[in-house]
Amino acid sequence: MNAKGDLIARLAAQGLGAPVFEALPSGPPHDLTFHARVLVGGQPLGTGGQARSKKDAERAAAEAALRVLDGVPDDAGTAPRGRWPVYAAVLAQALDAAVDLCPEDATLDEVRAEAARLYRDLLTELGHGPEGG
Predict the structure, then answer these.
(1) How far apart are CA 39 and CA 33, in angstroms?
(2) CA angle centred on 121, ends 32 and 48, rounded to 5°
(3) How many other C-beta atoms can be found within 10 angstroms of the C-beta atom of residue 36?
(4) pLDDT number for residue 45
(5) pTM for this structure?
(6) A Pfam family this protein belongs to (predicted)?
(7) CB 3.0–4.6 Å: which of 39, 57, 64, 97 could bond 34 by disulfide?
(8) Distance (Å, rounded) from C-alpha 101 to C-alpha 90?
(9) What would be the CATH architecture of the domain defined by 3-70?
(10) In this structure, are residues 36 and 48 in contact, taking their beta carbons and an 8 Å threshold?
(11) Distance (Å, rounded) from C-alpha 82 to C-alpha 51?
(12) How far is CA 79 from the centre of its chain?
């Protein structure tokens, strides 16, 4: 998934214009953390993102903005941060379950969001949270 590209395309399709990404560093030079947010029409969209690199912080902010556009509750502040391990078989099962759980008229983004939620919740329950989070 290319969250920034997806967000730009989605906003253009909705006639909302291009998003502006703001990323500000904090902390000492040897241990920077970037805090990013997405602005649409001068207004913040989503809760923003935080990461060790500007690119990852902007990606996280774009993902939060996409969740807002999808109407999905943005729990980024409570979800563990970092890269989640990928277990292909478990991810495939989460996707299958999401297809079954979502209404027939669900969009692809809604099914993806449900699959991601199921995957994240299962891995959290099993104690396999994000790496480096």
Answers:
(1) 20
(2) 35
(3) 22
(4) 87
(5) 0.56
(6) dsrm
(7) 57
(8) 16
(9) 2-Layer Sandwich (3.30)
(10) yes
(11) 8
(12) 11
Q: What is the C-alpha end-to-end distance of the chain, expressed in Å?
A: 20
Q: How far apart are CA 116 and CA 112, in angstroms?
A: 6
Amino acid at 41: G
Domain segments of the chain as ranges: 3-70, 79-133
DSSP state of 84: P
Measured distance CA(98)–CA(30) in Å, rounded:
42
Q: How confident is the model at residue 18 (pLDDT cuts 50, 70, 90)?
A: very high
Strand segments (E) across 1-133? 20-26, 33-40, 43-44, 49-51
DSSP assigned state of 131: B
Max CA pair span of the chain: 50
CA angle 15, 58, 30 (to 5 degrees): 160
Q: pLDDT tens digit string along 68-117?
A: 888 776 554 445 556 667 777 888 888 899 899 988 888 888 888 888 88
